[in-house]
Specification:
This protein has 411 residues and is an all-alpha fold. The chain has 15 helices and 2 strands.
Length: 411
């Protein structure tokens, strides 16, 4: 019994640390485009994102229920079997999070968490302990559909935004009014992030409490102290580390115009909020990236850089199996060595995090050593400095050219 309690406490501590890494790893993406367009200063943007993440975490618990009462058949496993697996899965998620943050590889904290849990469960118990129907319907399919949906929405909104403000064509970007709109839309993205990403850690802790018998399995709702702890932790992670990443993202999106940023953020926020209400566990990084690409394509004369877009897509596909492999290795140590394996996992996890953190401090912050998937997404679309004329402009130019000889004859 004492061992189960100790493992439960370790799981809660590790889950909250993952929540913290999620804060500085992902949440800054909400403020990437307003930083790029000058709508918000970096520190103001991160402080705003942190506060709204805190608020958003209290608005919905549907995603938490998906994690705590859907992915794993917790009712079929004893606490002594399930708690070490959750512990191993969190180690896989945190290790992959920190490694990709250091290397600047495209990644998703959400998929790192799910991959770690699934990989650990497959090794520790077997495939029968996983509800693949839920995994497919609420994780895999949303991961494929949501970025495309967000891109289409952003493309459409960008087209509409430029059509409505057509009078500014051919002039210095006079669409600066969208900068004020960006403050609102980027705030919505940060709020939406809290309703989705913070929920995942709540779900993991709730799952651990159910496994330990500290919460009734029929009530998948997170307890109040779990909601408060996860909300505060992800907000703290955003404020403590997010500004470092957001500065990099802002530099990487210097070609994004206010109208594009407004469109991308509106698309991201609407997609995430709708998914949170339905209990879909999304990758906010992927949704934000899809929106940035869609808004880029919405500008006239743009073309897709397929090599860059392909690299981003490969990064998305790699995260789930890679974090699953790390979680499986951690679970393997538990299967082989029992309680000793848990201690070894804990020591290795601390060592890996410390080494990766110290390594990151040695390098200057730039696009090569900080997470910049959303910034890279902006590079996946080639937008000319001077977009080609619209059909209307071509007609007006042709009409003017046709009238020129007549005027000369009149003279």
């Amino acid at each position: 019994m004492e061992t189960a309690v100790l493992i439960l406490l370790l799981v809660i501590a590790l889950a909250l640390f993952f929540d913290f890494t999620n804060g500085f790893h992902d949440t800054a993406n909400a403020m990437a485009t307003p930083i790029a367009t000058g709508a918000l200063k970096p520190k103001v943007a991160v402080l705003l994102a942190a506060g709204l993440n805190l608020v958003g975490a209290f608005l919905s618990t549907e995603v938490a229920k998906t994690v705590s009462h859907g992915i794993i058949h917790e009712d079929q496993l004893a606490a002594t079997a399930l708690l070490p697996l959750i512990f191993a899965g969190l180690i896989g998620a945190i290790t992959w999070n920190m490694l990709t943050w250091l290397l600047g590889l495209p990644s998703s904290s959400s998929h790192a968490l799910f991959g770690g849990l699934i990989g650990a469960t497959l090794v520790g118990v077997g495939a029968m302990a996983i509800d693949f129907g839920v995994v497919l319907s609420k994780i895999i399919l949303p991961a494929l559909i949501a970025p495309v949906t967000a891109g289409i929405i952003a493309f459409t909104v960008t087209k509409v935004a430029y059509a409505v403000t057509r009078r500014h064509d051919g002039k210095p970007d006079g669409r600066d009014g969208f900068r004020w709109g960006q403050i609102f839309t980027s705030s919505l993205v940060a709020l939406a992030h809290g309703t989705n990403d913070a929920q995942k850690t709540m779900g993991v802790i709730t799952l651990a409490l159910i496994a330990a018998g500290w919460q009734n399995a029929e009530h998948a709702e997170p307890q109040l102290w779990v909601i408060v702890a996860c909300a505060v932790t992800i907000a703290l992670g955003t404020y403590m580390g997010g500004w470092r990443i957001i500065r990099t993202l802002g530099k990487g999106l210097t070609d994004v115009k206010p109208a594009q940023g407004f469109s991308a953020e509106a698309s991201t926020a609407s997609t995430i909020l709708a998914s949170s209400a339905l209990g879909f566990a999304l990758s906010t990084t992927q949704v934000a990236s899809g929106s940035v690409i869609g808004s880029g394509l919405g500008r006239r004369g743009s073309t897709v850089r397929w090599r860059t877009a392909g690299r981003i897509a490969i990064g998305w596909l790699l995260t789930l199996p890679a974090s699953g492999a790390v979680g499986a290795l951690a679970a393997l140590l538990v299967v082989w060595f029992g309680a000793v394996g848990i201690i070894v996992d804990a020591v290795l996890a601390v060592a890996i995090v410390v080494v990766l953190f110290l390594r990151s401090r040695r390098d200057e912050v730039h696009a090569g050593n900080a997470m910049s998937e959303v910034a890279d997404s902006g590079l996946a679309v080639d937008v000319p400095a001077d977009p080609p004329p619209t059909r209307r402009q071509r007609r007006e130019k042709a009409a003017a050219a046709a009238q020129t000889p007549t005027r000369e004859e009149d003279r």
